[in-house]
Amino acid sequence: MADERLRLGGMALRNGLLIHGPTHWAAAVRGRDGEIAVASETKPRVAPGLAGRVPGVRGPLKLAEAMAVLPAVRRALPAARLPFEDWRVIAATGGTLALTAALRRRGGPSAARESAVQALGMVPAVVALRDRDLAAYHGVEHKAIAAYEQGAPDPADVPKEHDRCGSNLIAPIMLLSGGGSVLLERLVARPTALARAGVGIGGASIAVEMFAWSDRHHGSPLARAFHRPGREIQRLVATKEPTPDQLEVGVAALAEILRAEGVAETAEEGTPPPT
């Protein structure tokens, strides 16, 4: 049995929850027949070992690993509906790409233009979260994981906002990527798509390191300031209070990840692992 609580992450599905553990993933979804289906497997590793712990590299690698899990989830749980599986999200993504390209063709580099580009990049996510079920399962994700971390017996009693949510990366990524793009265009007459991608990846990598620092210094004034925009995004847009039926799916996903990671007895007893 583990000597401390597992570090868990997750992704809301349109009809359930996917949870990432240290070595496995687990998911639970509610099918059209009302029954809960559960599955788990070992996580794929994009770059195991030292590379995954190198600052500036680990962020993109972790994201790649999270994306690599999705095909396995669909194979194991055909009923699972992924966040982007909606024609409105696909249309919003296409429109965003077209508008972004048009903006970049007009005029010289400016903070105003880059702010507009970064704001446009959020449109597909906002469209996706207009689905109340997706936003509610995002709340389920936070409540289930926080209840486990805090040893709370009922996830319903835990706030739907969580300081390790990816929404905490939105503001720093927008600022860093936007500022980096302005600087790139002032230094290079016609930046290539590869150069722009490098700026975006660099901004995201720095934001992830800021995120990791805030987690290590949780509760400090600077960490609280870092988390404030993300918490407001979660409170206003990204999460909704789930129903008891949706929380039941989250509890099933949590129990499955603990079983897969070898701490099933703790989960069944309703108490957290000793710390």
List the keywords:
57% helix; 9% strand; 275 residues; 10 helices; alpha+beta; 2 domains; four-stranded antiparallel β-sheet
Task: Provide structural commentary.
The chain is of the alpha+beta class and about 280 residues long. It folds into 2 domains: about 1-85 and about 245-270, no CATH class; about 85-130 and about 160-240, no CATH class. About 55% of the residues lie in helices and about 10% in strands. A hairpin with a 3-residue loop joins β2 and β3 (about 25-30). The longest helix has 24 residues, at about 195-215.
Low-confidence stretches: 265-275
Number of strands: 4
When the domains are counted, the total is: 2
Mean pLDDT: 86
Q: Hey, roughly how much beta strand do the residues contain?
A: 5-15%
Largest sheet: 4 strands, antiparallel
User: Numbering strands along the chain, what is their spatial order in the largest sheet?
Assistant: 1-2-3-4
Count of discrete alpha- or pi-helical segments spanning 4 or more residues: 10
**Oligomeric state of the chains present here:** single chain
Percentage of residues in helical conformation = 55-70%
